[in-house]
UniProtKB/TrEMBL annotation:
Protein family membership: Belongs to the LysR transcriptional regulatory family.
Keyword Acetylation: no
Domain HTH lysR-type: 2-59
InterPro entries in the record: LysR-type_TF_proteobact-type, LysR_HTH_N, LysR_subst-bd, WH-like_DNA-bd_sf, WH_DNA-bd_sf
Name under which the protein is recorded: LysR substrate-binding domain-containing protein
Species of the source: Rouxiella chamberiensis
Record flagged with keyword Lyase: no
SUPFAM superfamilies referenced in this protein's UniProt entry, alphabetically: Periplasmic binding protein-like II (SSF53850), Winged helix' DNA-binding domain (SSF46785)
Domain of life: Bacteria
Gene3D superfamilies documented for this protein: 3.40.190.290, Winged helix-like DNA-binding domain superfamily/Winged helix DNA-binding domain
Alphabetical UniProt keywords: DNA-binding, Transcription, Transcription regulation
Length: 296
């Protein structure tokens, strides 16, 4: 018979790469962790871990077993949440990851109001520009922005938004006193670009005549950053032109701290997606939160 606690110990050791770190995470002693791993390997008749004085790593058999354990533990947790929810309301833990900017402005307020509706539910929110592995990190929902790449996970479109080329009045006064009036002018500007995009300086743009054309910046970006908040700060400091989400820059535009360039041209709209693991049981807490976020 499967011992689920033993499987969870194994998953934590594999993720941490250390018996000591896994023990600290789970509130157990190192001896208890080591004993359970030995028992698990004895029951299976295979070595799951390579042990050195500095680090623990997975064997070939251990790697496959680790992936299956992750799915099994997630299914078990979700099934228990469903059963408890039938009698106690939504409870357990909702683990969610977002980008820092969209998370702070949109998702965190939605999480706060969702938590108020479901007081027995605990929230774990991770703010990161990097894409977490939903299965390995045991994430229930990841909020992703932009164009969604092919994924083995379920995805729900929450909303879409415009992206706008913007610059500060100071930058325009110094470098473009007559204004940026054409795409050719825009291509010659000093650009601030997002380093995590595959083609940060190449976009398909719709002109006022409803024609699509490929827009390419003529030279390399003068500044690269890995998040939109940093690009916004650079733009406000007059460092150049940045292509940023409307929801991020609209207040600065209203305050006249930023100017929208070529407002009659349209850059591709981007999506906000809720991703969740493609498992047999989609927890009620996940379904309810996605609906809650859509309504907001």
């Amino acid at each position: 018979m499967l011992n689920f606690q033993r499987l969870e110990i194994f998953v934590n050791v594999a993720a941490a790469g250390s018996f000591t770190a896994a023990a600290a995470t789970m509130g157990l002693t190192k001896a208890v962790v080591s004993f359970n791993i030995k028992q698990l390997e004895a029951e299976l008749g295979v070595a799951l871990l390579h042990r050195t004085t500095r680090r623990v790593s997975l064997t070939g058999a251990g790697e496959g077993f680790y992936q299956r354990c992750l799915l099994l533990l997630q299914d078990a947790e979700r099934m228990l949440d469903e059963v408890r929810g039938d009698h106690q309301g939504v409870n357990g833990v909702l683990r969610l990851t977002t980008t820092p900017e969209y998370g702070a402005r949109v998702v965190v307020p939605a999480l706060a109001s969702f938590a108020a509706l479901h007081p027995q539910l605990r929230i774990q929110h991770v703010s990161s520009s990097h894409h977490n592995d939903l299965i390995a990190d045991r994430v229930d929902v990841a909020i992703r922005l932009g164009q969604l790449a092919d994924s083995s996970h379920h995805a729900t479109l929450i909303e879409s938004f415009s992206i706008l080329p913007v610059a500060s009045p100071g930058y325009l006064a110094r470098h473009w006193p007559d204004g940026i009036q054409t795409l050719e002018h825009l291509a010659q500007a000093k650009w601030l670009a997002h380093s995590r995009l595959s083609t940060p300086l190449s976009w398909v743009v719709n002109t006022p005549q409803q024609q699509s054309c490929l827009f390419n910046v003529e030279s390399s970006a003068s500044i690269m950053a890995d998040n939109a908040a940093a690009l916004l700060s650079f733009a406000l400091c007059g460092a150049g032109v940045a292509l940023l989400p409307e929801w991020l820059v609209k207040e600065e535009i209203t305050r006249h701290n930023l100017v929208v360039l070529l407002a009659d041209h349209q850059f591709p709209r981007q999506g906000v997606y809720a991703l969740y693991p493609n498992t047999r049981y989609v927890p009620e807490k996940v379904r309810l939160f996605i609906d809650h976020l859509k309504k907001r």
